[in-house]
Design a protein that fits this description.
Layout lengths: L5 E7 L20 H9 L4 H6 L1 H5 L12 E5 L8 H8 L17 H11 L3 E6 L2 H15 L2 E5 L4 E7 L5 H14 L8 E8 L6 E2 L4 E4 L7 H7 L3 E5 L2 H4 L7 E3 L4 H12 L5 E7 L1 H7 L4 H20 L5 E6 L18 E6 L8 E5 L3 H11 L11 H4 L3
Parallel strand pairs: 1-11, 1-12, 2-14, 3-4, 5-6, 9-10, 9-11
Antiparallel strand pairs: 2-13, 4-5, 6-7, 6-8, 12-13
Length: about 400
Amino acid sequence: MKKMKRVVMIVLDGCGIGELPDAGKYGDVGADTLGHVLAQQHPSLPNLSSLGLGNIRGWSEYADEEPIGCYGKMAEVAPGKDTTTGHWELAGLQLKKPFPTYPNGFPEEVIRAFEVETGMTVIGNKPASGTAIIEELGPEHLRTGSLIVYTSADSVFQIAAHEGVVPVLTLWDICRRARRILVGEHAVGRVIARPFVGQPGSFTRTDNRRDFSIDPMGDTMLDIIKEAGKDVIGVGKIEDIFNHRGLTRSDHAAGNPACIDSAVAFLKKDWQGLMFVNLVDTDSRYGHRNDVPGYAAALEEFDRRLPEIIRLLGEDDLLMIVADHGCDPAFPTTDHTREYVPLLVWGLGLREGVDLGVRSTFADAAKTALEALGVDNSLPGTSFYADVLDE
């Protein structure tokens, strides 16, 4: 069986494609990120459509009679709907139990330990939208210097601070200290630095966000490909999600344009192995802010630039476009949503128009990447490489 030189996996963060059967357990009945955005905004997506995006659900406006890609959708096995759980499963690591969440804020012992460790006081300590809480508590933070701590429906311990009050490097160090505290029963998926600037009434979050994830609890495709002596390149927040493990190179680019630029630059270089790219804007800038037009515009921007990526792929390259969870901007909440995710596959040496159906786990993506690269592994999932290979 033909082996590929390079696999490129691009994650459209938060781009779900319809509720999972267990969405009711998460309060997400009716969630349909991509469906709602397409129906309400009708973005122009000719390149994604040519790969088979519209064929996944039979959307007539976006379906292609002869798609050049292969298409399907994937279900998440692991409990949860957060970034870490989704990316880890895409990489072949299926969590058995969810990370802890805190719908009523963090317990007193956690906050007290954090204050003792950092020597700083805390305000907030509740679930909140990130933009809303800095508008609410930003003025008090400026007066007192107290750190704004908040969470969401995800397993996150978020720390917001004005860059003029707490320098970015100091905030990152505070997050590292929090990461050391949050272990055992309080081992949240991510500690997130949320720096902002501006004045009351016009605060703005900056691109100096950093995520401090828990270390993966088992091998991922990144570890296995690296151990096989191949390159593993992370673009965007991939290095944070995997706690810098399993990577040989990384570019912590911020925002979709910069991440696409980085991916294009890496594709112009000579390497062999995996490039794992996270495009975060659909999630962080638009999904969480219930901005349907913005979400549609981000999809259009990626679609316009997709040919730049495809032109740089040779006969020994394989492209996968996936997502990690939903984040429906048309849904009543600002949280992630429990959804299927799209699966689009393309390569010069691959078949066209193959319906890959409904995959039972995100891990099928990792299993396929590893088989395409010729790397032996014992990860869960079922490879669809033979289904798309034109031989």
